[in-house]
Each structure stands twice: as structure tokens, then as C-alpha cells.
Amino acid sequence: MIDVSIVAPIYNEIDNVRPLCDKLHSALSQLGRPYEIILVDDGSTDGTWQALRKIKIPHLRLIRLRRNFGQTAAMSAGFRESRGDIIVTMDADLQNSPADIPKLLSKLGEGYDVVSGWRKDRKDAFLNRRLPSMIANGLISWITGVKLHDYGCTLKAYRRDVVKNVHLYGEMHRFIPAFASWVGGTIGEVPVDHRARRFGTSKYGISRTIRVVLDLITVKFLMQYSKGPIQMFGKLGLALMAPGFATLAAIVIGNIVHWCTGDDNMVAALVKRPFWVAAPFMLIIFGVQSISIGLLAEISIRTYHESQDKPIYLIKETACSVQK
Questions:
Q1: Which domain-ending residue is among 172, 193, 224?
Q2: Which helix (H) or strand (E) element contains residue 7?
Q3: pTM score of the predicted model
Q4: Are residues 27 and 154 in the same domain?
Q5: Residue-wise pLDDT tens digits, 108-158
Q6: Fewer CB within 10 Å, N side or C side of the chain?
Q7: 212 sits in which H/E element
Q8: CB 186 within 8 A of CB 115
Q9: Among candidate residues 241, 235, 234, 248, the one with its CA nearest the CA of residue 284
Q10: Same domain membership, residue 181 and residue 72
Q11: 55 and 75: one domain?
């Protein structure tokens, strides 16, 4: 029975894989708990896979993807192949220290379902790494309601029963704590060591912040409206239709007043402009379209849940009374 699974996505880290494995073996062999190390080669082209095949340490499992699918996909593959009750994820660039893994496990033992590392003293350039990360962390914490200092830190520990129902795509791996909180999980955070990169080049850049923001919109929708998308699209539709009908009513009333009295009042003057004639009809049409999208989304969501027999709830534990 495996207790702890280490999952590390790897992409073009030929100089880091040997020291990574040595440090993992050194840290994990002192745990006194059954463990496995799962390294997922995400389509490396620099000989990383060949270097991994030469490494001989206990409990090491290697997975090679056919091409570079991205960090989230590689992590998802590691999750699927892992067997431990606890899954610890980390980067392979040695900026995270395997020596911090016991610290995460200890915090997890306090009753948390997810424990996230916090690179409190981060050794990265400020302008293109730390500043975008600070902005992204603030946005994610605000929108999801799960406040963490460092969503971007890959060094995290998860209980299997929390993450087994999380399907990852895009850049969604960084949002797992938010998803875990959504299903009732408890989230903890501990400061971890962070080191400057010694070998290779970073795979992250400021462009990733844009992808994170777009995925964040998806996360917000999934967390708040996935079980009732009509609530979002319906509210938007009504918000568009209300001023449309109000403007249309003002135009009608203005024309009636103008026809009856000949008084060229302000409303009557406005309706002579093409924009004010077209605007209410456009708002009403957009409102109807939004509600229609909401209805279609409702049908899609219901089909999704019913076709997979997917429950709309997750049970944390059960108990029964003992009768004598």
C-alpha cells in the first residue's frame, strides 16, 4: 500500500533530473512511509527521457507523453497513474526543495485536505515573474474566495479523495485548491524554500498570465454556475432587456405625446436619431440570445451529469450508530 505519491512534470530538464531524483530519494527515504516517485516527461526534446532511463533509485516510475501537452496534462497523467493516498506535486527545476515535503505532510496531518507551498522569499526576477504572479494570486484569491499567497507554487500536497474528481485541462492545475474548497475541502499553506534556477531555462513567461486570467473566468463559471448556468446567462439577459424595454417605452410615449400635442419635447427629439430607435431592439435581442444560451447550457450540463451518472454532491464520510 502506497502512502505518498510524488508527481513531477518534466520538460527539457536534462541537467536537473539526476540531482532531482537524488534529493527526492534522500528526503523520502527518511519519511518512514511507503512512497513512490512518478516523473512525467512531457515530450522533452533535449534527451531528458534518456537521462531518466539511466537513473536507478527505489520506487521510481517514469511516464513519457507522446508530445508536449503542457504542465496541466502531465500532472493529470501523474495523478491518474499514482497510487498513494496523498499526492505531492512539484516542479523538476530544483527551485522547490524536496526537503520541504515532510513539512507539507505534517501540515496535512493537522486535518487539511490540501496544503499549498508559499515561496515567501522567492528567487525570481521581479518584473517578468514575481509581479505577474502577485497580480494573478490577488485575482485568483478574490474571484475564487480561497485566499492563498502563492497559487503558482507547484509544491502542494493533496489527499486523493479530494483531487480524484478534479478533471484538469488548460492551466487548471494551479486552481486545484479552489476546486477542493468548492467541494468542501480545507486548505492550508506553509512557507517553503525557493532557490534560483541553476540549470536550464524557465518555461514560464508573462504570456502565461493571460492564459491564467482566461482560465480563471472558466473556473469562476464552473464554481458558481456549473449546476445552474441559466442563473448567470438569465440575469445577464434580463439586465440587457430591462433598459431595452424602458427605452422602447420612452420612444413610444414620446411619439404619442408628439403626435397628440405637437410638442417637440426632448424624448421626441431623441427618437428622431437612428441610434435611439435601434438601441432598444438590439438590447432586447441580446437579452433573448443570452437567455437562450443559458437554456442551452442548462441542457448541456444536465446531459453531462446524467450521461456520466455524475452526482452533484460529494460525500466526505459516513457513520452509523452502534446499537447494543
A1: 224
A2: strand 4-10
A3: 0.71
A4: yes
A5: 989 899 999 988 877 767 666 677 778 778 888 888 888 888 888 889 999
A6: C
A7: helix 207-225
A8: no
A9: 241
A10: yes
A11: yes
Question: 216 with 267, same domain?
Answer: no
N-terminal to C-terminal alpha carbon distance within the chain? 34
Q: Is 86 helix (H, G, I), strand (E, B) or coil?
A: strand
Grid coordinates representing 14?
536534462
DSSP 118-157: E-TT--S-IIIIIHHHHHHHHHHHHHHS---S-TT---EE
Number of folded domains in the chain? 2
What is d(CA 142, CA 151) in angstroms, rounded to the nearest whole number?
A: 12
Task: Output the CA torsion sign for 104, 106, 108, 112.
Answer: negative
Q: Is residue 315 part of a domain?
A: no
pLDDT tens per residue, range 65-88: 888 888 888 888 888 889 999 999
Whether 211 and 280 map to the same domain: the answer is no
Would you say how long the chain is, in residues? 324
The C-alpha cell at 138 is 490577488
Find the domain containing 257 and state its range: 229-307
State how far the Cα of 292 lies from the Cα of 300, in Å rounded to an integer. 12
Q: Which cell numbers hold the place of 238?
A: 434580463
d(CA 52, CA 17): 7
- Those residues whose C-beta lies under 8 Å from the C-beta of residue 69, and which sit 6 or more positions away, are 42, 43
84 shares its domain with 171: yes
